[in-house]
Specification:
This protein is of the alpha/beta class and about 375 residues long. The chain has helices at about 15-40, 100-110, 125-130, 140-145, 160-175, 185-200, 250-280, 285-295, 295-305, 310-330, 335-345, 355-360, 365-375; strands at about 50-55, 60-65, 75-80, 90-95, 115, 135, 150, 180, 205-210, 220-225, 240-245. The chain starts with 16 loop residues before the first helix and ends with a helix. Residues about 1-15 and about 20-85 have low confidence and may be disordered.
């Protein structure tokens, strides 16, 4: 039988003792060289996030090797021949608010065990967690100790504090789980968060959520960037569509900021226009003109206004983060600062102080919201 084999593979058949020993040494050397190559590649910003493929066994089968990123000598990991990364079973959601609860329910339906930390949280958040059937670990430290991945989904103003809490938990427990910032923050902010997590020895990914909470038939897109962003692909489902962008922390947040400037920025301007028209006494004339010349735009603004007031308090810091993003690339922040002012005003109203659940139960349309805000 002919000999067959490669430096990075086995499958040596019919070899003598000396030849077999030589094959073993060549195979061991191949693994060592492959791991060294992965280690060097992971230290480079040009690392393409592709496996080195080895042929192992008789008959030979493909094995993919991936490193942790950035990879240290103690962190290099060998993954299965399927090319997948670590097996994900336990996922932490901090915090299960309107979006977080929707994500948690979807992940549970996909077979994951979902945990959260309810110490110090509001009664509303605790109720949402119970309704979703989440396991309450109590503290962030316990969530970090339990979970393979932690998704940070909360008010953008709390994103950095949450990252500090996760980093402290990693240091206290020695557990280095994957931390994914899914908040509506500027690329500069998520890069700061990445630094906080990595300083604690953890790994961080950047994620930007676009779309409604994934309940019922609704679906959202989760854009992901950062080293080994493909590790989130197992979370993908009909309700959560994972879209891997790049290895650069900040890219996922950048698309969220640009998209949010259009959607939430346009809603802010549209609501301001409609409130002003009503207070000026020309709302009926304006509405007639809009229906004749811009009917689609009118309907778009009103449909989004219907669900906006309970979210206004969270959209204030999001507008500030978008302003920060745009200023960072040499553009004026003032348009989005104005939108932040608009949402700050709405957040202080009775409509703005309702919870999303209360607002949904009342079923108001967009025009009713405008009238309530104007009067």
């Amino acid at each position: 039988m002919p000999k067959r084999g490669k430096l990075f593979g086995s499958g040596f058949v019919g070899l003598g003792k000396g030849e077999a020993m030589s094959a073993v040494f060549r195979l061991a050397a191949g693994f060592m060289l492959a791991l060294a190559a992965l280690h060097a590649a992971a230290q480079s910003s040009a690392y393409p996030n592709k496996p080195i493929r080895l042929l192992v066994g008789a008959p030979p089968e493909v094995v993919n090797l991936y490193p942790c990123y950035p990879c240290t000598d103690s962190q290099a990991q060998t993954h299965s021949r399927t090319g997948t990364h670590m097996k994900i079973k336990n996922i932490g959601i901090v915090s299960p608010g309107d979006m977080g609860q929707g994500v948690a329910q979807n992940l549970k339906n996909s077979g994951f065990t979902v945990h959260t930390a309810l110490d110090g949280r509001s009664e509303r958040t605790k109720t949402l967690a119970r309704e979703a059937g989440l396991n309450d670990c109590g503290s962030m430290q316990n969530v970090i100790a339990t979970c393979d991945i932690v998704l940070s989904i909360l008010n953008p103003a709390a994103a950095i504090d949450n990252a500090h809490a996760a980093a402290a938990a990693m240091k206290a427990t020695g557990r280095r789980c994957l931390f994914v910032d899914c908040n509506a923050v500027a690329p500069q902010t998520v890069q700061e968060i990445d630094g906080i997590i990595r300083a604690a020895g953890g790994e961080c990914l950047d994620a930007g959520i676009i779309g409604p909470p994934p309940r019922g038939k609704a679906s959202m897109r989760m854009y992901v960037s950062g080293p080994q962003a493909t590790r989130l692909e197992p979370l993908s489902s009909d309700g959560i569509r994972i879209r891997v962008m790049s290895e650069r922390i900040g890219d996922a947040s950048a698309i969220k900021m640009c998209y949010g400037s259009y959607t939430k920025g346009t809603v802010a301007l549209g609501v301001e226009m409609l409130i002003a028209a009503r207070r000026l006494g020309v709302d009926a004339a304006l509405d007639r003109e809009l229906q004749e010349s811009a009917a689609d735009n009118r309907q778009w603004v009103l449909s989004r206004t219907a669900v906006m007031p309970p979210k206004a308090y969270r959209w204030v810091p999001e507008m500030l983060e978008i302003a920060k993003t745009f200023e960072g690339v040499g553009m004026t922040p003032r348009i989005l600062l104005g939108a932040a002012d608009m949402y700050e005003m709405i957040a202080q109203t009775a409509l703005g102080k309702e919870s999303p659940e209360e607002a949904r139960a009342k079923g108001r349309d967009g025009q009713s919201i405008v009238n309530g805000l104007a009067d």
